[in-house]
Amino acid sequence: MKQGFEEIVSKVKECGKKTVAVSVAQDSAVLEAVQEAKARGIADAILVGDEAKIREIAAGIGMDLTGFEIIHEPDVIQASLKAVKLAHEGKADMYMKGLIDTKNFLKSVLDKEVGLRTGGVLSHVAVFEIPGIDRLLFLTDVAFMTYPTLEDKVHIINNTVPVCRACGVEMPKVAPLAAVEVVNPKMPVTVEAEELTRKCEAGEIPDCVVDGPLSLDLAIDPEAAKHKGATGRKIQGDADVLLFPDIHAGNQVYKAIVHMVPGVKNGCILTGTKVPVILTSRSDTFETKVNSIALAAVVAEEMKKAR
């Protein structure tokens, strides 16, 4: 059976409703998303921000705030610190960006006193349910890490594997992508992909299968793998994780899928933090925001099991 966001929501209901702390919650799109998440049994929300504005916006969208905890803090920076502290102290299972710019939101995530640092590298994972593909695809990193080094890529894989497991993929196949599927010393990305493969085979990158370098068609299309004679590869068009060489490649593929593929569904989180962080864009759809909350909820449960 194909895994998708309906199955992810079902998993949330099995593990119990989570709580999301929202930083600067006076944002209509975010309030609509947390309202839907609560209605679907995905998550409760603690709304931190200007209470009068939160109530005004909620009234404007017909949102009943009964059952939502509101913490009044009109100052944007202080609101973000109060919201992240809830996650830091275990009073919330995940942390979500509201009406605050990304720079200041990330400052709260990285705050030494109340933030969500773990000492590791942070990275972004986008999860896609794409019509015509029989599994979820995990794209990383498409939004946070600009030019990852070989060491960074090891951390990105290690951050992504628990997300895959939370979504029901126990032994994810990771494809370090390049323009070609053979090692070329003049193309450093291919050399790093080969080294990632070696590290995985040596047990240095656990709980997954890494096979690179791979071109995108070989990673996701079994017919292309067959036509190119790649039948000896560990990944033959059945990759779960697409590991991009840099943010440009990742972001362009992400946006191409979002804007050019009818019926696609996706959700995104920031990983490598103490709890999952929901870092959506203002241009993201209502459904993407709800999906991101659901994704964060199942990852929060996976992290809880691993402690």
Tally of separate domains: 2
User: Which structural class best describes the helix and strand composition?
Assistant: alpha/beta
Poorly predicted runs are: none
CATH C-level name of the largest domain: Alpha Beta
CATH level 3 topology of the largest domain: Rossmann fold
Instruction: Sketch the topology as an H/E string, one letter per element.
Output: HEHEHEHEHEEHEHEHHEHEEH
Strand order of the largest sheet: 8-7-9-6-5-10
Strand content: 15-25%
Q: What is the CA-atom radius of gyration, in angstroms?
A: 20 Å
Distance separating the two termini: 30 Å
**Helix run count:** 11
Helical amount: 40-55%
How would you characterize this protein structure?
There is one protein chain. With 307 residues, the chain is α/β, with parallel strands linked by helices. It folds into 2 domains: 5-118 and 273-306, Rossmann fold, CATH 3.40.50; 123-260, Isopropylmalate Dehydrogenase, CATH 3.40.718. Helix content is 43%, strand content 16%. The protein is built from 11 helices and 11 strands. It has helices at residues 5-15, 28-39, 51-60, 76-88, 102-109, 150-166, 188-201, 216-220, 222-227, 247-260, 286-306, and strands at residues 18-23, 43-49, 69-72, 94-97, 123-129, 137-140, 173-176, 209-210, 241-243, 265-271, 277-278. It is elongated, with a radius of gyration of 20 Å. The model has no long low-confidence stretch (mean pLDDT 94).
